[in-house]
UniProtKB/TrEMBL annotation:
Cofactors, names only: Mn(2+)
UniProt family annotation: Belongs to the glycosyltransferase 43 family.
Membrane disposition: Single-pass type II membrane protein
Full protein: residues contained: 85 to 328 of 328
Glycosylation sites noted in the Swiss-Prot or TrEMBL record: 219
GO cellular component, one term: Golgi membrane
Protein residues bound to Mn(2+): 113
Name of protein: Galactosylgalactosylxylosylprotein 3-beta-glucuronosyltransferase
Annotated organism of origin: Aquatica leii
């Protein structure tokens, strides 16, 4: 199956470094279609050039986060949802360009700043409906993971540092959804109306139940993705003529 990786991205000093890192991960993955969605009114040359250099199969989109929903420079990051408009643009592209029962694939929401093992994509390729796995370095834990029933191997709960009682207490990096499901539920999308921290849980609720989740990564015993965050650099001077 084709893996459709939907990545929101926005202009900041570390953007090219982040996109270089994940595009070079994707270069090691067979059958991947990268849907890269810029949070901007216009597509930027920086992203255009990076795509041209990458040799990847890429769909380049852009849509700006509404100003009232945008995180201010001094706001704590939990104050606003991030990537909502961009992921929805990715979903819209999938639904307008792919056909149910003809195109086969799995959809993964791949933030631009996390760290992804190439092994993760082998797991994503196995997803029948909704696959789940541990995510490292998130929610105040060394990893968030699924609690599996010892006998049935099914998901019975969540080990999450934050609101583990959510219907699906899973970070965006911790699940992937079959394209058939995405195409057959066109109303499913992300929304600013959702409570903060509930995007993943509410979105997954359109498609599945806890009992149906497919635990991957060796029954959730392996960590293949890390919720890393890049420090914001202090830039005191600009060298002209360099795209950084
Ligand atoms: C956590 C989750 O891992 C995200 O998937 C979720 O979107 C986010 O919380 C949330 O609560 O909305 P976190 O590391 O805090 O992630 O968020 P960022 O990595 O800053 O942003 C997630 C994605 O949105 C990234 O791909 C980033 O490039 C993009 N983004 C962020 C924008 O497109 N525009 C922005 O103004 C900020
Ligand atoms: Mn992040």
């Amino acid at each position: 199956p084709m893996i459709y990786a939907v990545t929101p991205t926005y202009t900041r000093y570390v953007q090219k470094a982040e996109l270089t890192r994940i595009s070079q991960t994707l270069a090691l993955v067979p059958n991947v279609h990268w849907i890269l969605v810029e949070d901007s009114d216009e597509k930027t040359d920086l992203v255009r050039n990076l795509i041209a250099d990458s040799n990847l199969l890429v769909t380049h989109l852009n849509t700006k986060t509404p100003v009232i929903e945008k995180l201010g420079d001094k706001d704590p990051r939990w104050k606003k949802h991030r990537g909502v408009t961009q992921r929805n643009a990715g979903l819209k592209w999938l639904r307008s360009n792919l056909e149910l029962n003809k195109d086969k694939g799995v959809v993964y929401f791949m933030d631009d700043d996390n760290t992804y093992s190439t092994k993760l994509f082998k797991e994503i390729a196995k997803v029948k409906k909704v696959g789940v796995w541990p995510v490292g370095l998130v929610g105040g834990l060394n990893a968030e993971t699924l609690i599996l029933d010892q006998h049935t191997g099914k998901v019975v709960g969540y080990r999450s540092g934050w609101k583990a009682d959510r219907k699906f207490a899973i970070d965006m990096a911790g699940f992937a959804i079959n394209l058939d499901l995405i195409l057959s539920k066109p109303e499913a999308q992300f929304s600013y109306e959702m409570e903060k921290g509930f995007q993943e849980s509410e979105f997954l609720s359109y498609f599945t139940s806890k009992e149906e989740l497919e635990p991957l990564a060796d029954n959730c015993t392996k960590v293949y993705v890390w919720h890393t965050r890049t420090e914001k650099p202090v830039v005191k001077g600009i060298v002209p003529g360099l795209e950084v």
